[in-house]
Amino acid sequence: MRRVPYVLMDVFTSRALEGNQLAVFTDARSLTDSEMQSLAKETNLAETTFILPRDAATESDKGVRVRIFTVDEELPFAGHPTLGTATVLRGESGKPLVELELNVGKIPVQFEDRGSEPAFGEMRQQDPRYGRTFDSAKLEADLGLEAGSLRRDVPAQTVSTGLPFAVVPVRSLKTMQALRVNWIGMQSALKETDAKFFYFICRETVQKDAHVHARMIFYNGEDPATGSAAGDAAAWMAKYGWAKPNERVMIEQGLEIRRPSRIYVRADKQGDNVTNVRVGGSAVQVARGEFLLA
Q1: DSSP code of residue 175
Q2: Which one of 38, 70, 201, 212 has the largest count of C-beta atoms within 10 Å of its C-beta?
Q3: What is the pLDDT of residues 206-251, one digit of tens each?
Q4: What is the CATH superfamily name and number for domain 2-125+282-293?
Q5: Per CATH, the architecture of 129-281 is what?
C-alpha cells in the first residue's frame, strides 16, 4: 500500500474551524492525474492541492510545483489553495517568501510574522484583464433578483487576475444576506463570458473593521472564502474607486454559512492602469493524516 500524506488547513482565518478548508497532499509524486482527481473528489472540499517536490535548484528557479483540483476539474489558479499550500511549505522555517509554480505560472507569497498570531501571507496575482460589463436590469432578471438589487453607479464586470469571475456590486447587505441565485439564470448570464461564477460584493458589512461583504455561490454550494475572486474584486475596486491605490481592504466572506473568513486585498493604480494586485490572510493547520492506496 502507498501511504500518501496530507494536511488539512483552514485558510483566510487565524482560528481553527473557520475560513475555507483545504486538503494539501505534501508529496504527490507517486500519484497519477486520475488519482489526484479521485482524491480531490474523496476529500469533497472546494479545492485540494498536490505538491510535487523537485530538486532545490529547480525549485529556486521556478518555484515549488503545485497542482490544484476541485471535485470536478483541475484549475490553473485559485487563491485560498495558493495561500494554504504556501503556509504548509513555509512550515516553521520563518522564510519570508515562498514561490509556487502553478499552471498559471509562478506565484510569490510574501509572509510576515505577527507574534502569537498565525503568520500573514500575501500573494501577488496577475495584472488584471477586464472583460465585458453586464446590463444591471437584465442581470437582475436572469438571476431572479428584485429590480433595483444591483448598483447602477458602477457596472457588474468580468475581471481576471488568474481566474475570471464576474464581479457584481449589490446595493444592500439585506439583499446580500437573502441572496438565492437562480442557477440556470446564472449559467445563462455567464455563457458568453470567460467567467464561470459570480462574486457578489457590497459596501455594507457585518464586522466593523470590514470594508466589503462578499458571497460566491457555485456548483459545490457556497464558498467560505474565494481568494482568486477577491483578487478580481481588488482590481475592480481600484478601477472604479471603491479603494484607493495600495489601500488594504478587508473583505468578509462566509458569514452566511457560518465559516467566517477575512481576506485582505489591495492594488496599485497609475492613471487607468491597475497593477500589483495582492491578496492576503492567515491559515492554520487543523489535521493531518494519510491515504492508503494500492
Answers
A1: H
A2: 201
A3: 999 999 999 999 877 899 999 999 999 999 999 999 999 999 999 9
A4: Diaminopimelate Epimerase; Chain A, domain 1 (3.10.310.10)
A5: Roll (3.10)
